[in-house]
Each structure stands twice: as C-alpha cells, then as structure tokens.
Write a structure and sequence with these properties.
Pfam families: McrBC. By secondary structure, the protein is of the alpha+beta class. Helix content is 39%, strand content 21%. The protein has three domains: 5-60 and 103-192, no CATH class; 67-100, no CATH class; 201-351, 3-Layer(aba) Sandwich (Trna Endonuclease, Chain: A, domain 1). The chain has helices spanning 5-19, 29-33, 39-57, 79-87, 105-118, 125-135, 164-177, 194-212, 275-289, 336-351, and strands spanning 62-70, 76-77, 93-101, 178-180, 186-188, 216-219, 222-223, 238-239, 242-246, 251-258, 265-267, 270-272, 298-306, 316-320, 323-330.
C-alpha cells in the first residue's frame, strides 16, 4: 500500500489529528511539520509531546489500598496480620490504608508503551532522549504485561480526561503492533495491523466530515431493520461506519470505510468486489430507504476503500433497486490536500 513512506506516515498524523481532536488543540505544531520515516518515530514524537504536557499539569493520581507493617497506627489495624506479628514477637502493627499514588493503570500504560519504544532500534535518539527524561518522573510507576490490559474497562472522568488521547494512542500501538519473541518478551512490529488501521481509517473519515463539512450531519448511526411484524429477535445490529445526512434530512449517504491489503477479490484471474461488503452496504441502504415511506428522499451507499498499489482499483457506480451504490478508493499516499479534496468531492456529488 505504501508508495511514498514519508507522505503516508504524515497522513497517519493527520488521521490521528481528526480521530483524536486533542492533537489540534495546540502543543503539537512541531510534530505536524516534521518528516517521519517510520511509524515508531511518529508515535514516539506524539507521546513525548503529550507526556510533557501532562507532566506540566501533574500526573494523575488515585487512592490505592496499601497493607504493610508499621511502628505506629496508620489507617485501620489489620487484626490477623497484627496477631501474627505478636506471635512472632515483632513489635509492629499490620495496617491497611489508602494512599494517593501515581502508580495507577493509566500511568502504567504510558510507561509500558514508552519502554517498548525505547527498546526499538527504529526510534531516533532525539525522541528517545525526550522520553527518557520524562520517564524519570515515572520512577514510582510499574510497567505491566500489555496483554492483560482491559481497554474496555478504562473509564475517564474530569480528573483524568487529559489522558484520553494518550491512552488511545497507546492502545493503537499495543494492540496493533505488539509481537511476542521466542524468549517470551514483547517488541513492536514495523507497522500497525490491518484491523486497527481499519478502525483509525473509519474514525478519521467520520471526524473529517463532522469538522470540515457543515452542510451535512456526520454520525455513526445504527439502522433499524425494516420489519413487517416488528419482531427482530436475534437479528444483528446494523451499525454504519459513517452516515451523512443533509440538513433537510431527506438525503442520506451511508459510507462503509474499508482498509484492506487487497481492495478486490480474485478468482481465476477475474477481479470482483468483496461480496460481503457489497451485500452489507446494499442491506444498509435498503433498510434505511424504507424509513422515509412515501416522502421525497434519496438514500445512497458507498464502499470507500483505502487505495493499494494494485493495478486494478475499483471506481464504479451502480443503480440497484432505485438506489445508487458506489465503490471508490481513497489514496492515502497523496498529499493531504488531495485526500481532503476527494472527500469534499464525495459530499458535493451526493448533496449538491
């Protein structure tokens, strides 16, 4: 997929900027102007900037339960432990208490991710130096096994909301790039895997339209099944990637964003569209179409693939049972202004 690596990695930064709006809120201007030869340097640069900002605000701390032997009462006395100490003729008390500590899961995730980047040979020394200096403030924070992190259980609130972008980036790195060596140690792969890139690609397109195209409303809405009797037991949820709706509400474009190594499937040297993708977008469009009843309206669908370096790239439009279904590609190896122009052209074509 990569033709010009530096341009592609630069566009990864732009995709992250839309997916994580924090990158557009100042402090990351230097990162935006740098040229990166690999993903590791890009991620290291963003983390170095983000952690530096967090250190200025102070590391998030939360109360953690401690139990230890002490000479004087602290918190509440743990009777079984204290009795054991007495039997062993130790003149100490076992106490339980809550301590405000930076050694919590959010800081542990940051440190674990940074330590993996520091061990990677492809991270340039300038980024390693910044990260090493910042890790001095994490001396009381433990590293953890990255495979044990329950990302869905992490909750953000007012006191730690500034960590949201950093933790999301760590998740992209640890879930998308983590490999296990023969010795059981962890290291980072040279690239983010296809599944995580697909999620970033979806999020980028959705947030781009939400920010840059005020003439439409951009959501990731669910589509109800058009049921004759209202009974939908065990039917799967129809969750769109991107749904663009005109301000009047009578024109809808449903986009399924796809990031694949191959944009078509091949059998006996014949290239065809991924059948499952086409069936899915057609189902979304026809069920959405029924919501309008007899009202004047227009519902269309689009499969928007990230372009590969394959010779054949889909660029087709079909009229199916009264609805337009398009298949397009978005070339992430081009200058970002060209990517933006293509995304804008999609809105112009369908909503003009």
């Amino acid at each position: 997929m990569i033709k010009d690596k530096s341009i592609f990695i630069k566009n990864i930064y732009y995709m992250l900027s839309y997916a994580f709006t924090t990158l557009n809120q100042g402090g990351y201007e230097d990162v935006a102007t740098e040229e990166f030869e690999n993903m590791h340097n890009l991620f290291a640069a963003i983390l170095a900037k983000g952690i530096s900002r967090q250190l200025k605000q102070g590391l998030y701390r939360e109360y953690l339960n401690r139990k230890e032997d002490v000479a004087v009462v602290r918190g509440k006395i743990d009777m079984p432990g204290t009795i054991q100490n007495r039997l062993a003729r130790k003149r100490v008390l076992t106490c339980e208490y809550d301590e405000l500590s930076e050694n919590n899961l959010l800081n542990q995730i940051l440190k674990t991710t940074v330590m993996l980047l520091l061990r990677h040979t492809r991270v340039d020394q300038e980024y390693k130096s910044d990260l090493k200096k910042e890790m001095l403030f994490f001396s009381n924070v433990d590293t953890i096994d990255p495979t044990t992190i329950r990302w869905s259980a992490i909750r953000f609130q007012r006191n730690n909301n500034t960590y949201r972008m950093l933790i999301s980036l760590c998740q992209l790195i640890l879930e998308g790039m983590l490999l296990t060596t023969d010795s059981g140690e962890y290291k980072l792969a040279s690239f983010v895997d296809e599944q995580r890139m697909n999620r970033l690609y979806e999020k980028f397109i959705l947030e781009y339209y939400a920010k840059e195209c005020p003439q439409v409303t951009a959501t990731a809405s669910q589509i109800p099944w058009a049921l004759d009797d209202g009974i939908g037991t065990m039917l799967p949820v129809m969750q769109s990637d991107i749904m663009l709706t005109s301000r009047s509400g009578d024109t809808v474009l449903i986009i399924d964003a796809k990031y694949y190594t191959h944009t078509t499937q091949t059998q006996y040297d014949v290239h065809t569209l991924h059948s499952g993708n086409l069936y899915q977008i057609f189902t979304y469009v026809k069920n959405k179409d029924t919501e309008f009843g007899e009202q004047p309206h227009k519902v269309s669908g689009m499969l928007l693939y990230a372009a590969t370096d394959e010779a054949i790239q889909p660029d087709n439009s079909y009229q199916m049972s009264g609805n337009k279904i398009s298949v397009k590609t978005l070339d992430l190896n081009r200058d970002f202004s060209e990517i933006a122009a293509q995304l804008n052209a999609i809105v112009t074509e369908h909503f003009s």
